[in-house]
Amino acid sequence: MLESLALIGAAELGKVVLEKTLELGRTAAEDYVKDFFKGCLKGGMLAAKPEIARKATAAAVQAFLLLAVDELEDQDIAKATIRDRYDQALVQFVKDEAVKPILGSAFEKDCRVIDVAALASLWQRSTFKGQPFPTLPDRFDWQHVGNEYLRKVRRLVRETPELKSLLETELLEDIARNTAQVSPGFDVAKYRNSLQTSYGYLKLYTLDSTDRVDAIKLWQVFIEQTVREALPPMRYELPLDLKRQLQEQGQLEADLSIEALEHYRREYFQQSSRKAFEAIAASPRAVILGDPGAGKSSLLQYLALEWVEGKTETLPLLIELREYAIAQVNGFLEFLHRGQGADWQFDQQQLHQYLLEHPTLVMFDGLDEVFDRATQSAVIDDIIRFAQQYPQAKILVTSRVIATTRNAFNMQSSNILRFSR
User: Fold this and answer.
1) Among 5-9, 61-65, 375-379, where is mean pLDDT lowest?
2) Cα–Cα distance between 365 and 341 in angstroms, integer?
3) What's 217's DSSP letter?
4) Which position among 86, 122, 338, 359 has the lowest Cβ density within 10 Å, counted as fewest Cβ atoms?
5) What is the DSSP string of 242-308?
6) Tell me, what's the pLDDT at 400?
7) Residues of CATH 3.40.50.300 domain(s) within the chain?
8) Is the sign of the CA dihedral 279, 297, 402, 336 positive or negative?
9) Cα–Cα distance between 283 and 11 in angstroms, integer?
10) Least confident of 185-194, 253-262, 341-350, 376-385
11) What is the CATH number of domain 185-419?
12) Does 139 score more than 50 pLDDT?
């Protein structure tokens, strides 16, 4: 059953998954979609675009079923056993009234994790034809299934223009409602003064707790860094004990061979270093990597101050990802509209329109300071979606080397740069 689903084209998913596999008639399938998106997509939009919601539901259900089967296979359960013991239970499971909205929650704009604890509990309590569901292996990893399912749903949204448009319509309606309640305005002149106050002078009190009042301008001490394009060895230049710990936690891949590692190191250091500003100017999207204290944040602040001093007309927006991650908001525009950790607030409706119509420099500082891996993955997805929605924006992301992998930043045309040593 499930093997055949993987071969079905997207155009047939709605009919096959919702009507044939789940044994639902058309009316029942429509009710299933409504329950699936309960609390996520609004009823009016579902009625206006029923086929889009239908195909999205089918694709999501298919993804969840296949991930569950993959996890069972990873526990060394034979395909025949999965077919005989688990297939019917899995299909019955995704038809459960309590399961449908949990799976549908992955389409919410601010969804960070799937409630896998609830899914696990529901499985243990579920029955089929009066018999309990078959027991899952002790090592069945619900968290892995939930994380992969959420990732596949996000990819589905990105790669389905109609669905993306439907969700963005809901986003714009939310923006309009929030803006109507409280609007911080769009005062660029005051914003310029705020940046000067926030970043114009070094914060020496972080180094010296005495009552010194010396004011040193960032302009006076900033030295432009040089960068090289980052290559794979950046993940392996770690102390052995720390590297082993990260590998055990699944945060690093297996070691490269000594020969391969030396090859990558030679290739990296044979590159000519470039001035940071030159490299940034040459790339519409870049990730800047550096060790602690290397000046990643100072670089972004300096770029913002160039606009303050009138050296560029491109409006800079600087977002500290640590503050964004704890703000509990629906995206970066809402963070800049009402986020308590934002240095300045902009009306998100006006900012949305500005981003669509004007070049901007949007800087995301400190990805490594988002410590929870699931949250960090969600933040990366938010950055990717932002870059896709606002193609005129130049995107910069900073992070410590240890917190990154090359595959984490799959933004189109992105350039990964590392401060030269």
Assistant:
1) 5-9
2) 13
3) B
4) 359
5) HHHHHHHTTSS-PPPPHHHHHHHHHHHHHSPPEEHHHHHHT-SEEEEE--TTSSHHHHHHHHHHHHH
6) 85
7) 185-419
8) negative
9) 37
10) 253-262
11) 3.40.50.300
12) yes
